Amino acid sequence: LGDKLAEQLVAASLVKTVADLYRLRKDELAALERMGDRSAQNLVDQINKSKTATLPRLLHALGIPQVGEATALALAKHFGDLDPILDASEEQLQEVDGIGPNVAAEVRSFFHQKHNREVIGKLVKSGVYWQKIVVDRKSQPLAGKIFVLTGTLASLTRDQAKEKLQALGAKVAGSVSKKTDFVVVGEESGSKADKARELGVVILGEKEFLRLISHY
Protein backbone atom coordinates (compact mmCIF):
# COMPACT_ATOMS: atom_id res chain seq x y z
CA LEU A 1 0.00 0.00 0.00
CA GLY A 2 2.06 2.90 -1.34
CA ASP A 3 1.37 6.61 -1.52
CA LYS A 4 -0.19 6.53 -5.00
CA LEU A 5 -2.61 3.75 -4.14
CA ALA A 6 -3.50 5.49 -0.88
CA GLU A 7 -4.32 8.63 -2.87
CA GLN A 8 -6.51 6.58 -5.22
CA LEU A 9 -8.40 5.04 -2.30
CA VAL A 10 -9.09 8.45 -0.78
CA ALA A 11 -10.04 10.01 -4.13
CA ALA A 12 -12.50 7.17 -4.76
CA SER A 13 -14.00 7.71 -1.29
CA LEU A 14 -13.18 4.11 -0.37
CA VAL A 15 -11.05 5.24 2.58
CA LYS A 16 -11.68 8.18 4.89
CA THR A 17 -9.83 6.95 7.95
CA VAL A 18 -7.19 4.25 8.46
CA ALA A 19 -9.89 1.97 9.90
CA ASP A 20 -11.61 1.88 6.49
CA LEU A 21 -8.68 -0.11 5.11
CA TYR A 22 -10.00 -3.15 6.96
CA ARG A 23 -13.34 -2.93 5.15
CA LEU A 24 -11.90 -2.96 1.64
CA ARG A 25 -13.05 -5.74 -0.70
CA LYS A 26 -11.07 -7.42 -3.43
CA ASP A 27 -13.51 -6.36 -6.17
CA GLU A 28 -13.32 -2.70 -5.09
CA LEU A 29 -9.54 -2.76 -5.25
CA ALA A 30 -9.40 -4.67 -8.55
CA ALA A 31 -11.51 -1.94 -10.20
CA LEU A 32 -8.87 0.70 -9.47
CA GLU A 33 -6.39 1.87 -12.09
CA ARG A 34 -3.35 -0.44 -12.43
CA MET A 35 -4.80 -2.96 -9.98
CA GLY A 36 -5.62 -6.49 -11.11
CA ASP A 37 -7.18 -9.41 -9.24
CA ARG A 38 -3.86 -10.75 -8.01
CA SER A 39 -2.63 -7.37 -6.70
CA ALA A 40 -6.00 -6.75 -5.08
CA GLN A 41 -5.94 -10.13 -3.32
CA ASN A 42 -2.35 -9.61 -2.16
CA LEU A 43 -3.28 -6.25 -0.63
CA VAL A 44 -6.34 -7.69 1.14
CA ASP A 45 -4.16 -10.49 2.53
CA GLN A 46 -1.55 -8.04 3.80
CA ILE A 47 -4.18 -5.79 5.38
CA ASN A 48 -5.67 -8.77 7.19
CA LYS A 49 -2.21 -9.85 8.31
CA SER A 50 -1.60 -6.40 9.82
CA LYS A 51 -4.49 -6.88 12.24
CA THR A 52 -2.08 -8.58 14.62
CA ALA A 53 0.16 -5.76 15.80
CA THR A 54 2.39 -4.83 18.72
CA LEU A 55 1.46 -1.94 20.98
CA PRO A 56 4.56 0.11 20.09
CA ARG A 57 3.88 -0.28 16.34
CA LEU A 58 0.23 0.63 16.80
CA LEU A 59 1.11 3.79 18.75
CA HIS A 60 3.68 4.81 16.16
CA ALA A 61 1.28 4.13 13.27
CA LEU A 62 -1.46 6.32 14.73
CA GLY A 63 0.52 9.39 13.71
CA ILE A 64 0.64 11.13 17.10
CA PRO A 65 2.69 14.34 16.74
CA GLN A 66 6.25 13.99 18.11
CA VAL A 67 5.78 10.27 18.84
CA GLY A 68 8.36 8.30 16.91
CA GLU A 69 9.36 4.67 17.34
CA ALA A 70 11.41 5.26 20.51
CA THR A 71 8.68 7.27 22.26
CA ALA A 72 6.02 4.74 21.22
CA LEU A 73 8.13 1.96 22.72
CA ALA A 74 8.64 3.92 25.96
CA LEU A 75 4.88 4.55 26.26
CA ALA A 76 4.09 0.89 25.64
CA LYS A 77 6.61 -0.36 28.19
CA HIS A 78 5.43 2.11 30.83
CA PHE A 79 1.66 1.64 30.51
CA GLY A 80 1.45 -1.88 29.10
CA ASP A 81 -1.80 -1.34 27.17
CA LEU A 82 -3.61 1.31 25.14
CA ASP A 83 -6.46 2.11 27.56
CA PRO A 84 -4.21 3.56 30.31
CA ILE A 85 -2.53 5.77 27.70
CA LEU A 86 -5.89 7.00 26.40
CA ASP A 87 -6.84 8.23 29.87
CA ALA A 88 -3.41 9.35 31.11
CA SER A 89 -2.99 12.95 32.29
CA GLU A 90 -0.07 15.08 31.14
CA GLU A 91 1.53 14.56 34.55
CA GLN A 92 1.28 10.78 34.23
CA LEU A 93 2.65 10.89 30.68
CA GLN A 94 5.66 12.87 31.88
CA GLU A 95 6.53 9.99 34.19
CA VAL A 96 7.54 8.05 31.07
CA ASP A 97 11.27 8.14 30.45
CA GLY A 98 12.12 10.64 27.71
CA ILE A 99 8.74 12.37 27.61
CA GLY A 100 8.71 16.04 28.55
CA PRO A 101 5.90 18.61 28.80
CA ASN A 102 5.62 19.25 25.05
CA VAL A 103 5.32 15.60 24.00
CA ALA A 104 2.99 14.86 26.92
CA ALA A 105 0.73 17.70 25.79
CA GLU A 106 0.69 16.37 22.21
CA VAL A 107 -0.18 12.83 23.32
CA ARG A 108 -2.90 14.04 25.69
CA SER A 109 -4.35 16.33 23.01
CA PHE A 110 -4.36 13.54 20.40
CA PHE A 111 -6.23 11.06 22.56
CA HIS A 112 -8.57 13.75 23.88
CA GLN A 113 -9.95 14.36 20.37
CA LYS A 114 -13.22 12.56 19.67
CA HIS A 115 -12.27 11.77 16.06
CA ASN A 116 -9.10 9.92 17.05
CA ARG A 117 -10.89 7.88 19.68
CA GLU A 118 -13.57 6.93 17.14
CA VAL A 119 -10.90 5.73 14.70
CA ILE A 120 -9.28 3.60 17.42
CA GLY A 121 -12.70 2.15 18.26
CA LYS A 122 -13.26 1.26 14.59
CA LEU A 123 -9.83 -0.38 14.40
CA VAL A 124 -10.72 -2.58 17.36
CA LYS A 125 -14.09 -3.48 15.82
CA SER A 126 -12.30 -4.38 12.59
CA GLY A 127 -10.28 -6.97 14.48
CA VAL A 128 -7.03 -5.10 15.04
CA TYR A 129 -5.35 -6.72 18.02
CA TRP A 130 -2.14 -6.13 19.95
CA GLN A 131 -0.38 -7.96 22.73
CA LYS A 132 -0.43 -6.31 26.15
CA ILE A 133 2.91 -5.78 27.84
CA VAL A 134 3.19 -7.06 31.39
CA VAL A 135 4.49 -4.18 33.51
CA ASP A 136 6.42 -5.49 36.52
CA ARG A 137 6.00 -2.70 39.04
CA LYS A 138 7.90 -4.72 41.67
CA SER A 139 11.06 -4.30 39.63
CA GLN A 140 10.38 -0.55 39.44
CA PRO A 141 9.78 0.47 43.08
CA LEU A 142 10.44 4.13 42.29
CA ALA A 143 7.99 4.32 39.37
CA GLY A 144 6.26 7.70 39.31
CA LYS A 145 8.88 9.40 41.47
CA ILE A 146 10.71 12.42 40.06
CA PHE A 147 14.35 13.04 41.02
CA VAL A 148 16.67 15.95 40.28
CA LEU A 149 20.45 15.56 40.56
CA THR A 150 22.66 18.51 41.42
CA GLY A 151 26.32 18.86 42.35
CA THR A 152 29.07 16.23 42.19
CA LEU A 153 28.75 12.81 43.83
CA ALA A 154 31.91 11.13 45.13
CA SER A 155 30.95 7.49 44.60
CA LEU A 156 29.38 7.61 41.15
CA THR A 157 28.97 9.92 38.18
CA ARG A 158 25.81 11.84 37.36
CA ASP A 159 25.08 9.45 34.47
CA GLN A 160 25.55 6.41 36.69
CA ALA A 161 23.16 7.84 39.29
CA LYS A 162 20.65 8.60 36.54
CA GLU A 163 20.87 5.06 35.14
CA LYS A 164 20.33 3.52 38.59
CA LEU A 165 17.25 5.67 39.19
CA GLN A 166 15.77 4.96 35.77
CA ALA A 167 16.35 1.22 36.26
CA LEU A 168 14.19 1.50 39.39
CA GLY A 169 11.46 3.27 37.44
CA ALA A 170 12.14 6.85 38.52
CA LYS A 171 12.20 9.83 36.19
CA VAL A 172 15.22 12.13 36.34
CA ALA A 173 14.33 15.72 35.54
CA GLY A 174 16.61 18.63 34.79
CA SER A 175 14.89 21.25 36.94
CA VAL A 176 13.15 21.45 40.30
CA SER A 177 9.40 22.06 40.48
CA LYS A 178 6.46 21.33 42.75
CA LYS A 179 6.20 17.94 41.09
CA THR A 180 9.73 16.95 42.15
CA ASP A 181 9.84 14.28 44.85
CA PHE A 182 13.57 14.25 45.68
CA VAL A 183 16.62 16.38 44.98
CA VAL A 184 19.94 14.56 45.33
CA VAL A 185 22.59 17.04 46.42
CA GLY A 186 26.32 16.50 45.92
CA GLU A 187 29.34 18.75 46.36
CA GLU A 188 29.15 22.24 44.89
CA SER A 189 25.40 22.09 44.40
CA GLY A 190 23.88 25.26 43.12
CA SER A 191 20.51 26.94 42.75
CA LYS A 192 18.61 23.65 42.41
CA ALA A 193 19.21 22.88 46.08
CA ASP A 194 18.00 26.37 47.02
CA LYS A 195 14.90 25.89 44.87
CA ALA A 196 14.21 22.57 46.59
CA ARG A 197 14.37 24.17 50.05
CA GLU A 198 12.10 26.97 48.86
CA LEU A 199 9.48 24.48 47.61
CA GLY A 200 9.83 22.07 50.50
CA VAL A 201 11.10 19.22 48.32
CA VAL A 202 12.90 16.38 50.11
CA ILE A 203 16.68 16.79 49.83
CA LEU A 204 18.96 13.74 49.90
CA GLY A 205 22.69 13.86 50.53
CA GLU A 206 24.88 11.28 48.83
CA LYS A 207 24.79 8.82 51.76
CA GLU A 208 21.01 9.09 52.02
CA PHE A 209 20.67 8.61 48.28
CA LEU A 210 22.88 5.49 48.26
CA ARG A 211 20.98 4.10 51.23
CA LEU A 212 17.69 4.65 49.40
CA ILE A 213 18.65 2.87 46.19
CA SER A 214 20.46 0.06 48.07
CA HIS A 215 17.10 -1.06 49.51
CA TYR A 216 16.02 -2.32 46.09
Descriptive notes:
This protein is α/β, with parallel strands linked by helices and about 220 residues long. About 50% of the residues lie in helices and about 10% in strands. A four-stranded parallel beta sheet has the order 4-3-5-6, with helices on both faces. The protein has a two-stranded parallel ribbon with strand order 1-2. α4 (about 55-60) crosses α5. The termini are far apart.
Task: Provide the β-strand percentage band.
Answer: 5-15%
Radius of gyration: 23 Å
**What's the multimeric state?**
single chain
The percentage helix is 40-55%
Which structural class is indicated by helix and strand composition? alpha/beta
Distance between the termini: 49 Å
Widest sheet: strand ordering: 4-3-5-6
Count the E strands.
6
Helix count from the secondary structure assignment: 12
Largest sheet: 4 strands, parallel
**Mean pLDDT across all amino acids:** 92
Q: What's the helix-strand series?
A: HHHEHHHHHHEEHEEHEH
Q: Could you name the ranges where pLDDT drops below 50 across 5 or more consecutive residues?
A: none
What characteristic shape results from the CA principal axes? elongated
